[in-house]
Amino acid sequence: MAIKLSKAEKKVQYDKKLCRLLNEYTQVLIVAADNVGSNQMQNIRKGLRGDSIVLMGKNTLIRRCVKLHAENTGNKALLNLLPLLVGNVGMIFTKGDLKEVSEEVAKYKVGAPARVGLVAPIDVIVPPGNTGLDPSQTSFFQVLNIPTKINKGTVEIITPVELIKKGEKVGSSEAALLAKLGIRPFSYGLVVLSVYNDGSVFSPEVLDLTDDDLITKFANGVSVLTSLSLAISYPTLAAAPHMFINAYKNVLAVALATDYSYPQAEKVKEYLKDPTKFAVAAAPVAAAETASTPAAAAEPEKKEEPAEESDDDMGFSLFD
Questions:
Q1: Is the pTM of this model over 0.85?
Q2: What is the C-alpha separation between 304 and 254, in angstroms, rounded?
Q3: Fewer CB atoms < 10 Å away: N or C end of the chain?
């Protein structure tokens, strides 16, 4: 027979469990649990079993436990969890890949009807088509200004209608109509709000970044840093190559405009004095490229044909 614990004993047990999890795990997903049923929660726990643990509880109790544990252990980074514990939220402690765990949590969503007074998380659009309702039900559509017609003894919606907008509360007429049409427009499950990773807190959108996204962002940052360094003439590792090249261009320009010279500038001066050298140097390269092309390789060799003797060679023309 199970022994019933008092509220104080339950709090002590909860505190021990939370402290153990905080010591054992460094990764935590803060999730919203609005409109999530007990059966759905049980399925989520089963799906995450192995390297993740779902912990729900009262925010005041969790905050108190986190504060005391941070003071006792000296791990002040745990205090970053406190601002995240707002509303109907829970914590998923995990040792697995954060993105994979987040994707696994997103799988357990359950469709739900539109209840009166519920704030719509998405836009609800009623598609056109036959509803299967008899003509006596047209009053619902008239109240909501939905254009209909009677087709073969049933009500048919003519055009798609945006019944409820995101963020609006569901009214009694909208809820009744959706129920009659058998439409369950909403789906609920645990939603990841924030990610805690060894003291750092960031948005779950960061988990969707790929290696290509990171490389692109890094390249953009280096480009901005280089432009700023060049604009204010402040040397940095990113701007140094461009500064050296620009300085060399200035020195070369001075050497070309004056009698001053150095070995690297001699060749440029020589080419400027005799531009034909450019063509001589480029001709072998162009010939090599032409010979290496498939068209040139496939082109058959043309045999030289002996020139035909003309009438001029005979000493008279065609009109003589």
A1: no
A2: 55
A3: N
**One domain, residues 83 and 194:** yes
Find the DSSP H helices in 49-135.
59-73, 98-107
pLDDT tens profile 97-137: 888 899 888 888 888 888 888 888 888 888 888 888 888 88
**36 and 105 together in one domain:** yes
DSSP 15-44: HHHHHHHHHH-SEEEEEE-TT--HHHHHHH
**Cα–Cα dist 115/127, whole Å:** 20
- For residue 286, is it within any domain? no
Euclidean distance between CA atoms 272 and 263, whole angstroms: 15
**Is the C-alpha dihedral spanning 255, 256, 257, 261 positive or negative?**
positive
Tell whether 32 and 80 lie within a shared domain: yes
196 & 225 share domain: no
Say whether both 195 and 105 belong to one domain. Answer: yes
Phi, psi of 310 (to 5 degrees): -95, 165
Dihedral sign, CA of 217, 219, 220, 226? positive
Query: What single DSSP character describes residue 82?
Result: G
In a domain, 303, yes or no: no
Domain that residue 216 falls in: 211-281
The span from the CA of 161 to the CA of 176, in Å, is 16
124 and 25, same structural domain? no
Q: Is the dihedral of CA 105, 111, 117, 123 positive or negative?
A: positive
Quick: pLDDT tens for 58-70.
Answer: 999 999 999 999 9
What angle (nearest 5°) sits at the alpha carbon of residue 248, between those of residues 242 and 251?
Answer: 145
My answer on whether 60 and 89 are in the same domain is yes
Same domain as 52, residue 169: no
- Residues contacting residue 224 through CB under 8 Å, at least 6 positions apart: none
Q: Are 55 and 19 in contact (CB under 8 A)?
A: no
